[in-house]
Design brief:
The protein has about 425 residues and is α+β, with helices and mostly antiparallel strands. Helices cover about 45% and strands about 15% of the residues. It is built from 17 helices and 16 strands. The longest helix is centred in the N-terminal third of the chain and has 34 residues, at about 1-35.
C-alpha cells in the first residue's frame, strides 16, 4: 500500500507540473497574441491574378514581422473609393490604403493623410531612388503624402494576326498619319457593308479612355487642369478641343473606331473585333491570360504637334492623418517593406518598380515590356494633374468625352459645358 501511495503521489506531482506548464505556455501565447499589433490594408487590387501577388507580398511581410498582423481588405476599383470615403466619414479609415496617384490631392486637401517625409532619407527610403515627377505629384504644401510602389506608362497594343493579315509593317506606326493608315487597313467591312472589325478602340470606360485621351490633350498643348497648388481648368482650351476633334474624327470621319457607348473594349479586342488599343502596361498580364488575342505592343507614336507625352500612372501606399502609436510604427514598417520588395508586384503586374534601383533586378530585366516601359516613363511620362475634388472632375470629363463620341454634342460645346461645371465645383 505504501508503495502504491508513493506512486500515486508521484503521478499527481507530475500532473500538477504539467498543468502549471500548460497554463504558463497558454498565458505566454496569450500575451504574445495580445502584444501583436493589427493593421488593416485596403486595396482596389481585387481581381486575379493581381490580387494573388498582393496576397504573397502581405504573407511575406507577416513571415518576417510576426509581431504585426495585417488584415487585407480587397475591394474592386469600381467601389473602392466609395467605401474608403465612407470609412473616412465614419472616422475609421484603414491604417494603410493602396491607391493610385490621381486621388492624392483630394485627400491631402481635406487633411485626411499623414505626411510621410520622415520615411525618406538616410535612415529610410532613399528619396533620389524614385522618379522625381512621381514624388512631386505626391507633394502638397511641401509635404509628401505617400510611398510609391510602381510606375507605368502606356503602349499601343495590337493583334499580331490581324496586323499580319493586313500586310502592315510589324514595327508599328511612327506618326499620326501612319497611325490612321494602320487603323484604316485594319478596319474590315462585312458582306452587308457594315463594319465587322475596327482598326482602333477609343475606350469604353474610365480606365480605357483616359490613357489615349490625356496623351492627346497634352500633345496639343491642352489638359484637364494646369499643374500647381491652385490648378486652373483648361478642359475647354484650344489644345484640348483640337485633340478631341482628332479623336472624334476617328469615329465619325475616318470610321476606323466604333462609338464607345455600349461596347466592352477589352472583350472586343480579345475577340478580334478591335485590332489596336492604347492602354497601360498591365495589359501584359492580360495578354498572358488571353493567348487567343495574339497580342503585341508598340510605342504609342506622337499624335499631336506640341510634344510627345504619355500618362505616367502609379500605385502608392498612404496612411490616414490620425494614425499614431503602435499602429503608426507597424504601418510604417509595412509600407517600407512593400516599397523595398516591390519586384514581386512588378513581375505580376508588368509595371516598373517605383524604386529605380530595383529595375536592375534580373527578373525585371527579363520582362518583355521593360525596355519600352522604361523608355516611356523616363523620357516623356507625365503624372496626371490632380485637384481637391478629383472624383467629380473625372466624372465630368468622362461624361463629356463619351457625349462627344456618341455625337450628342460637338467637342467645343461638350468641353465648354464640362469645364464650366468643373470650375463651379472647384470654387
Amino acid at each position: 500500500m505504501w508503495g502504491n501511495s508513493r506512486k500515486t503521489r508521484g503521478k499527481i506531482a507530475v500532473c500538477s507540473i504539467l498543468v502549471v506548464l500548460l497554463m504558463f505556455l497558454t498565458l505566454l501565447g496569450f500575451t504574445a497574441s495580445a502584444q501583436k499589433t493589427t493593421i488593416r490594408m485596403m486595396t482596389g487590387i481585387a481581381a486575379r491574378p493581381w490580387r494573388d501577388d498582393v496576397v504573397k507580398m502581405v504573407s511575406g511581410f507577416a513571415e518576417s514581422n510576426p509581431d504585426i498582423k495585417v488584415e487585407a481588405i480587397y475591394e474592386g476599383w469600381d467601389t473602392f473609393f466609395d467605401k474608403l470615403n465612407a470609412m473616412y466619414m465614419a472616422g475609421d479609415p484603414p491604417e494603410v490604403q493602396w491607391v493610385y496617384d490621381i486621388m492624392t490631392r483630394q485627400y491631402a486637401v481635406r487633411n485626411q493623410l499623414k505626411a510621410v517625409d520622415e520615411m525618406f532619407g538616410s535612415e529610410g527610403l532613399p528619396l533620389d531612388d524614385f522618379v522625381p515627377s512621381v514624388i512631386e505629384s505626391l507633394t502638397y504644401e511641401g509635404k509628401i503624402y505617400g510611398v510609391p510602389l510602381d510606375t507605368f506608362g502606356t503602349a499601343l497594343w495590337y493583334n499580331n494576326q490581324l496586323v499580319a493579315e493586313a500586310g502592315l509593317n510589324p514595327m508599328g506606326p511612327g506618326n499620326a498619319e501612319e497611325f490612321i493608315e494602320y487603323a484604316k487597313k485594319l478596319t474590315v467591312q462585312d458582306s452587308a457593308g457594315g463594319i465587322d472589325q475596327y482598326g482602333f478602340g477609343v475606350g469604353s470606360g474610365t480606365l480605357q479612355y483616359r490613357p489615349f485621351a490625356l496623351q492627346l490633350f497634352r500633345e496639343w498643348g491642352g489638359d484637364i487642369l494646369t499643374p500647381g497648388a491652385e490648378p486652373e481648368v483648361i478642359l475647354d482650351s484650344e489644345g484640348t478641343i483640337n485633340a478631341m476633334r482628332w479623336i472624334y474624327d476617328l469615329v465619325a470621319k475616318h470610321k476606323v473606331a466604333p462609338s464607345p457607348v455600349g461596347i466592352d473594349q477589352l472583350q472586343s479586342f480579345a475577340g478580334g473585333k478591335l485590332a489596336m488599343v492604347v492602354d497601360g502596361f498591365w495589359m501584359g498580364t492580360w495578354a498572358n491570360s488571353h493567348p487567343e488575342a495574339s497580342v503585341g505592343f508598340w510605342q504609342v507614336p506622337q499624335i499631336g504637334p506640341k510634344k510627345h507625352s504619355t500618362v505616367l500612372t502609379f500605385h502608392l501606399l498612404q496612411m490616414p492623418a490620425q494614425i499614431s502609436g503602435a499602429k503608426y510604427e507597424a504601418s510604417k514598417r509595412f509600407v517600407e517593406y512593400m516599397a523595398n520588395n516591390s519586384v514581386r508586384w512588378a513581375l505580376g503586374s508588368y509595371f516598373l518598380p517605383a524604386r529605380i534601383s530595383l529595375r536592375n533586378d534580373p527578373l525585371i530585366r527579363k520582362m518583355p515590356v521593360t525596355p519600352l516601359e522604361e523608355f516611356v516613363v523616363d523620357n516623356y511620362g507625365e503624372p496626371e494633374v490632380s485637384s481637391g475634388n478629383m472624383g467629380a472632375v473625372m466624372i465630368k470629363t468622362e461624361s463629356a468625352y463619351f457625349t462627344i463620341l456618341n455625337g450628342d454634342k460637338t467637342p467645343e460645346q461638350a468641353l465648354k459645358d464640362a469645364a464650366a461645371e468643373i470650375r463651379s465645383l472647384l470654387k
